[in-house]
Amino acid sequence: MNASGWAVGKKVGRKPAFTEHDIIRAAMDEGLDTFTLAAVADRIGVGATAIYRLFGSRDEIVTACLDAVAATIALPEPGMGWREVLRQWANECWRICEDHPGLPRVVYSYAPAVTRITEVLDAYAASLACHDITSGQAGFALDFLGDTVFACHLGVQAMRAADRTGATGLDQVRAALGGTHSILHPHESWQQRGLVDTKVEFILTGLEHHWPEV
Fold first, then answer.
1. Which member of 4, 68, 107, 174 has the lowest number of beta carbons within 10 Å of its beta carbon?
2. CATH number for the domain including 31?
3. Position 1 in a domain
4. What sign does the dihedral 31-33-38-41 (CA atoms) show?
5. pLDDT digits (tens, 9 = 90+) for 154-188
């Protein structure tokens, strides 16, 4: 009690004017592989220390971002053939790379990243199981295709990136090769999906003849 007779309790602070979703969105907009707490805070108009009201560390934000990405991955529909299932998986891997800059680098540099899509992988494995494909075989195929697509996207990002002069990676490759005759033939497709679909179909054809297990 104070002199006026009113009870004195713990002072209630102002509620944060932002949500976990705001932080996740800001981190994705900054780039999953490069965002800083300061940059995220600046985007949502708060001080950097305010972020700790909702997340204890940068890694916690990364994990939350990966969960948000995983929630957007389309799952197989009933009745899909195994090739359709794997093509969809490859397409979804490419889409999330396109939608979320920096995602491939995070997947390869942040060890727990793969644990955020266990439910997605289980759903794809269950769909493949309808075609007598074991969980080990499904794991191999999903990993092989995912690695192929993510690695290809890393290369595409390098071809798209521009230096201080505005020259893209593709421009730099062309300049480095000059007029020399080489097996390399730089093409605009290097900045797009390029040979991704060809590689996916090559893998599917190989699986028709031999399907390893992990």
1. 4
2. 1.10.10
3. no
4. positive
5. 998 888 888 999 999 888 988 888 877 778 788 88
